[in-house]
Design brief:
The chain has a domain at 72-174. It has helices at residues 10-35, 47-51, 56-64, 68-101, 105-136, 142-178. The chain has 180 residues and is mainly α. It is 79% helix and 0% strand.
Length: 180
């Protein structure tokens, strides 16, 4: 079971969640101008395109579309992402745990699982960033592009599932409650 979570009272859990959420939003806003120059024809979604490049050739095509300054933006963004991942991981884990507290049965278990999934997403994100840093600094092995993709795809899936849970389960409860 998700450790209550981490021994927090319900009130402390809410405060921790909102602090992590605000930190996530601030970090996201701070990262936007860093990542904006990474959007090119070869990488239409910027860093996300690169994370999901999947092959060395595709990854190198994206890197070639960035000039030296843009590559510095990529390096700064990858470094700052280590801070961002802690914030979003905490927000998602605490959010899923917070919603799960008020649920029973499979909805509670799903929330607990997704809270742990958020922490797994952070670990995957860290490995993905390491692979991208290796590529950015000149490594030319297919392994690094494949590893980045292999970590990015489940990271995005886990984060999306956690976010969907945090949004949908309370809405579902309201819809069911209003129909009575």
């Amino acid at each position: 079971m998700f450790p209550a979570p981490f021994g927090l009272s319900p009130a402390a859990h809410k405060r921790a969640f909102f602090a992590a959420l605000v930190t996530t939003l601030i970090a996201f806003l701070a990262m936007s101008p860093i990542n904006a120059p990474l959007k090119t024809e070869a990488a239409p979604n910027g860093i996300v395109s690169w994370e999901l490049a999947r092959t060395l050739d595709r990854s190198l095509e994206m890197l070639a579309s960035w000039d030296e300054l843009t590559r510095l933006h990529a390096a700064l963004g990858l470094g700052f992402d280590y801070v961002f991942m802690l914030a979003y991981g905490a927000a998602l884990a605490l959010g899923c745990g917070l919603i799960a507290r008020g649920q029973r049965g499979w909805r509670r278990q799903l929330g607990v699982g997704l809270a742990w999934g958020a922490l797994l997403a952070v670990a995957l994100d860290a490995v993905e960033n390491y692979a991208l840093i290796r590529l950015l600094f000149g490594a030319r092995r297919e392994l690094w592009a494949e590893l980045a993709f292999g970590c990015a795809a489940p990271k995005f899936a886990l984060a999306a599932a956690g976010l969907l849970y945090v949004i949908a389960v309370p809405l579902w409860g309201r819809v069911r409650g209003s129909g009575r």
